[in-house]
């Protein structure tokens, strides 16, 4: 081997060593097993009293260019014993982030959260809810987007271009709980002729000013919550999701004053000559060192209101919500959570009790109890009156 | 005998004895001088990054580990900024914590929860609460700033073979979990060797010992081992620091909600 060759070989090997050192990779995720036991006879003959399902959520991340570039891939899949609609998969994230001098650019499928309150996420609109996962609508489908973000002295500005729409997931005919009629998820209706290819836009400014964290946003595009229209398809009566075009202004604010968190979310939504206002707000108060222990007790009271009253698509159109969260602050991160909602229009209630703790370094066990109580057929909760259930989750994190 | 006396009698007696022994004015002044010198010797470090392993042990001897990476930025004339990223236990992996601490007034704190991609502003009045289930309270881990306490010089004492000052520090913040702390500071380098924490009833709650000091940039001392023992519960927490780096190029722009969201 002559000197030039040797030099080249050395240069190459040091280059590849550098490239290797520069790209950081990371892998994490969880697999989970979930069992549900329903406490009453089902409303529909094809529904079961017990349900098992398994899910997996792996995530890969690569970072290079001195961490100014990164790519994240997060997948999700669930197999469900009874509900074909709940056996599903999704790409939660597949996004490249580039951090420039002034602007951070994020391209791909991502998850974005807006808002401050706990019982309802009124202003949170970028991602579609993966509603078949859980009634709390906190699981989200990956949203394709181009997002530019800049941090300035006067706040953070985010511009979103959303080129593709994701339809909401609903439990199938064999699912439990489910709506009283089957949802024709394969035959959605859109107001826009572009259907799911309509390009939506959103703009948000947020800032921290002393004790206040404030966000103001504008959204123009396809509504994430569909109207469910009764329809006959192939001789079967069901509900057809209809996704209108909307314009929405929203404000969310939190004041953090000693042990108190004061929270408010409000929207003004406009559609085809009609408009309405809705708001959700309340407070959270934390008692640190509850009863002379290491535990914290958080108390929450929230109220949700929608101008459309009973015509609202929201579950919280005139609802008072109370919550208590006991965090033991122990080695196992034991937590007990309780939430009660009371609908002031329909006189109905729902209750959630959730306990969780960690076993060892990787396993988290949680037990949830959900009870629904409603006597008025017009109430959304009425459809769940026989679906009280106990749920056990075993989640293994790696 | 001591048990029979109410706490306030003990406090009153101790104060009376202290008042007789040394003029209170002189002890406060000397205490403050020592605190100012401690701070003066730790000014100008700029920014740092380090990794920390936390070992929690309960009374039965069972233990559990947490791993955290911490980026810190010195802020002149105020508390420091920090961004902490949790690597284990696995279920909290990816959770990140942004804190702007302040010399006077409440700190500003945000938590990033990766499962929801949600940033939450959290109350900083939790300063007396445990950090991640450990024996360290949030207030034990924030940067030392002179205005956070008032001071009393108590005595000179030898500790770990070093000549040291023993001072008493009394938190100004009413949300602090302590009535006072007794701090051993070595005379040669003004490094904290030991702290005793007294709870709201002025009973000895915890003892922190700092060992394995290393010097960085030929000036700044950091303890690589910190052991906190809770005398009331029998639990303890050990912090093992590693990979301390200074002058890593961190700037103010690296500490905001956008960097919090992509911290990993």
UniProtKB/TrEMBL annotation, chain B:
<dbReference type="InterPro" id="IPR033399">
    <property type="entry name" value="TP_0789-like"/>
</dbReference>
<keyword id="KW-0732">Signal</keyword>
<feature type="signal peptide">
    <location>
        <begin position="1"/>
        <end position="26"/>
    </location>
</feature>
<keyword id="KW-0449">Lipoprotein</keyword>
<protein>
    <submittedName>
        <fullName>Outer membrane lipoprotein-sorting protein</fullName>
    </submittedName>
</protein>
<feature type="domain" description="Uncharacterized protein TP-0789">
    <location>
        <begin position="79"/>
        <end position="262"/>
    </location>
</feature>
<dbReference type="InterPro" id="IPR052944">
    <property type="entry name" value="Sporulation_related"/>
</dbReference>
<dbReference type="Pfam" id="PF17131">
    <property type="entry name" value="LolA_like"/>
</dbReference>
């Amino acid at each position: 081997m002559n000197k030039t060759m040797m030099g080249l070989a050395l240069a190459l090997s040091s280059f590849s060593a550098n490239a290797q050192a520069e790209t950081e990779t990371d892998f994490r995720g969880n697999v989970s097993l979930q069992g549900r036991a329903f406490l009453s006879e089902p409303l529909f003959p094809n529904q079961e009293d017990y349900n098992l399902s398994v899910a997996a959520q792996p995530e890969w991340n690569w970072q290079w260019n001195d961490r100014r570039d990164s790519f994240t891939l997060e997948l999700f899949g669930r197999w469900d014993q009874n509900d074909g609609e709940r056996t599903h998969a999704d790409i939660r994230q597949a996004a490249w982030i580039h951090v420039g001098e002034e602007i951070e650019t994020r391209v791909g499928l991502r998850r974005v959260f807006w808002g401050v309150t706990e019982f309802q996420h009124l202003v949170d609109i970028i991602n579609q809810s993966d509603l078949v996962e859980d009634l709390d609508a906190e699981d989200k489908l990956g949203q394709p987007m181009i997002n530019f973000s800049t941090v300035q002295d006067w706040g953070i500005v985010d511009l979103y271009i959303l080129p593709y729409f994701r339809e909401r997931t609903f439990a199938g005919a064999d699912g439990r709980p489910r709506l009283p009629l089957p949802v024709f998820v394969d035959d959605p209706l859109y107001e826009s002729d572009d259907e799911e290819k309509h390009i939506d836009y959103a703009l948000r400014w947020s800032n921290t000013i002393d004790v206040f964290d404030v966000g103001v946003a504008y959204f123009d595009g396809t509504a994430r919550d569909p109207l469910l229209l009764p329809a006959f398809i192939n001789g079967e009566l069901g509900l057809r999701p209809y996704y209108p075009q909307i314009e929405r202004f929203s404000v969310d604010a939190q004041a953090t004053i000693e042990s108190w968190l004061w929270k408010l979310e409000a929207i003004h939504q406009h559609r085809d000559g009609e408009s309405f206002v809705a708001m959700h707000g309340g407070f959270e108060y934390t008692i640190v060192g509850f009863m002379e222990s290491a535990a914290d007790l958080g108390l929450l009271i929230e109220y949700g209101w929608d101008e459309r009253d009973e015509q609202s698509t929201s579950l919280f159109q005139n609802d008072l919500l109370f919550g208590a969260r006991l965090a033991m602050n122990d080695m196992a991160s034991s937590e007990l959570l309780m939430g009660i909602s009371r609908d002031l229009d329909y006189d109905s209630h729902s209750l959630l009790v959730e306990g969780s703790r960690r076993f060892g370094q990787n396993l988290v066990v949680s037990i949830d109890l959900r009870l629904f109580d409603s006597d008025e057929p017009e109430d959304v909760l009425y459809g769940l009156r026989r679906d009280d259930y106990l749920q056990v989750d075993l989640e293994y994190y790696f | 005998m001591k048990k029979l006396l109410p706490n306030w009698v003990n406090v009153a007696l101790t104060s009376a004895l202290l008042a007789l022994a040394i003029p209170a004015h002189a002890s406060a002044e000397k205490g403050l001088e020592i605190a100012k010198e401690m701070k003066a010797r730790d000014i100008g470090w700029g920014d740092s990054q380090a990794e920390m392993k936390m070992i929690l042990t309960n009374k039965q001897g069972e233990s559990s580990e947490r791993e955290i990476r911490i980026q810190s930025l010195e802020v002149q004339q105020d508390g420091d900024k920090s961004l902490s990223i949790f690597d284990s236990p696995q279920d909290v992996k990816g959770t990140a914590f942004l804190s702007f601490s302040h010399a006077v007034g409440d700190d500003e704190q945000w938590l990033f929860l990766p499962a929801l991609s949600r940033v939450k502003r959290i109350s900083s009045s939790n300063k007396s609460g445990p950090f991640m289930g450990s024996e360290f309270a949030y207030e034990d881990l924030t940067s030392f700033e002179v205005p956070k306490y008032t001071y009393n010089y108590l005595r000179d004492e030898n500790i770990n073979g070093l000549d040291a000052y023993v001072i008493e520090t009394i938190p100004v913040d009413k949300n602090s979990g302590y009535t006072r702390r007794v701090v051993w500071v070595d005379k040669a380098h003004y490094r904290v060797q030991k702290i005793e924490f007294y709870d709201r009833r002025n009973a000895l709650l915890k003892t922190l010992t700092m060992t394995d000091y290393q010097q960085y940039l030929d000036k700044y001392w950091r303890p690589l081992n910190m052991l906190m023992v809770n005398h009331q519960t029998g639990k303890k927490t050990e912090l093992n620091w590693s990979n301390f780096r200074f002058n890593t190029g961190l700037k103010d722009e690296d500490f905001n909600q956008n960097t919090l969201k992509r911290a990993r």
